[in-house]
Amino acid sequence: MVQTDKGSRGYLISIVMVAVLGGLLFGYDTAVISGAEKGLQAFFKEAQDFDYSDRWHGFTSASALIGCIIGSALSGLLATRLGRKKSLIIAGLLFFVSALGSMDPEFLFFEHGKPSFSLLLMFNFYRIIGGIGVGLASAICPMYIGEVAPSNIRGMLVSWNQFAIIFGQLVVYFVNFFILGDHIQPLVEEMGKGIAAINPAAQWTVTTGWRYMFGSEAVPAGLFALLICFVPETPRYLVSIGQNQKALGILARINGSGKAQQILQNIKETMTVKTEKLMTYGVMCIFIGIMLSVFQQAVGINAVLYYAPRIFGDMGMEDPMMVTVFMGIINILFTLVAIFTVEKLGRKPLLICGSLGMAIGAFGVAVTFGHAGLEMVTAISIMVYSASFMFSWGPICWVLISEIFPNTIRGAAVAIAVAFQWIFNFIVSSTFVPMFNMHLTEGDDFGHWFTYGLYGVICIIAAVFVWKLVPETKGKTLEDMTNLWRKRC
Question: Which of 224, 298, 369, 469 is the most exposed place for a label (fewest CB within 10 A)?
Fold first, then answer.
């Protein structure tokens, strides 16, 4: 690639595109369960040594999130000790092992095709391994992009990571759809009565289909683990370990030789104290980062993304997987809105507008879900809710988390913020089905309107939080954030 005094834009784009593959795997791994969970449920319902209850199914569907919490909590330590690049290589290998293990959890130790409690534990072990990879990638990919990107396009480039997450979800929706083919998902009422009692068109899904869905992730996981070996370490990390000349070389390739010297000097000035304490810049700095993560999950979006086919099926849609794919396409389009407006409009306006749009969509679902003749209104409300998230909290939260923390505490601060994100992801995902199915009296719709009404209220609180407390970071360098928080604390 040709490098000019202005730097090589092609070089920058190439390394960012490799990094966002981690985001694609993030989306792929977290959404693959949406197509596989019913076949998986029917498979373990056949177990003779324990009762695979709804509670066990809820835990199994969300078990990867336990790994996400672990991975995100470890991300700061690994990113600081090993660097951003090596940590992403580890994430890629974990994705790969998890994909193969989830496809064939019987490998070496169990009889193939015979469900048991021990096999369930092994399956969840592999899903947790993949979750650790997701947790690492979710924290380190935007950190990596934020640390190599010039300040004037950093928001746009970090937003591509969210695009990759949503694209990964869309890809796996398509993959699950094509794997399913002419087969169908088993009905809940058929489960546990023996494989022969299940509709013949669904039996393949129970014995084999869910395995292919999980195993399909091995292809992008292997590609990511290989390609990440060829990207450079970030200049900020290199300066933190005293490799200034290497950092200067990478900065020169990205920004041009003249500007590279100035950026390097700014980085060195904020790296003079390598071991600053987490609260050096005040409690509010960490609190805002944590609450950005909490609100991104507490608004309830992943309850929709993880259970989309089931939700659309409960609404009476004839082909819920196809509707889920359509929703995935809409999500992609609205993520592009954020990518191309974040540097023009700023971070805060997008977050506030998205919060209000989500509130409207959530209240729409709360009022119309389950009412005959209003199915289309409910579907549109769900898509408004989802689309509003995709141009706001989806990408912009990651942008802010990657850039609001000062250089000297970024690794640890990002790890804490992202760990809270996965904790609340787990809480929302594991409580959605019980809340949604709540009844005050037999047959009422209390759970339906309460669940989405609660999400709508949280969306409004999130808008107020952003308006009052979150700093605007548009156009600021990562080094500017050090001065911003010093003035605030």
Answer: 469
Q: Could you tell me which residues come within 8 angstroms of residue 376 by beta carbon, excluding any fewer than 6 positions away?
A: none
What's the rounded Cα separation, in Å, for the pair 390 and 331? 6
Residue 80's φ and ψ, nearest 5 degrees, are: -80, -40
Question: Using CA atoms, how far apart are residues 419 and 65, in angstroms rounded to an integer?
Answer: 10
* Of residues 45, 74, 69, the one with CA closest to residue 57: 45
Residues 433 and 54 sit within 8 Å (Cβ to Cβ): yes
Reading the block at residue 2, the tokens are: 């040709």
* 361: CB partners within 8 A, 6+ apart: 381, 382, 383, 384, 385, 386, 387, 388
- Encode 148-166: b = buried (16+ Cβ within 10 Å), e = exposed: bbbbeebbbbbbbbbbbbb
Q: Which of 222, 79, 82, 72 is nearest to 144 (CA)?
A: 79
Stated pTM of the model: 0.78
Kindly list the averaged pLDDT for each block of 10 residues, start to end, along the chain of length 489: 63 90 86 84 89 84 86 87 93 94 92 92 95 89 86 80 83 87 77 75 86 93 93 89 89 85 79 62 85 91 69 70 78 85 87 95 85 80 90 87 80 84 82 76 75 92 94 78 74
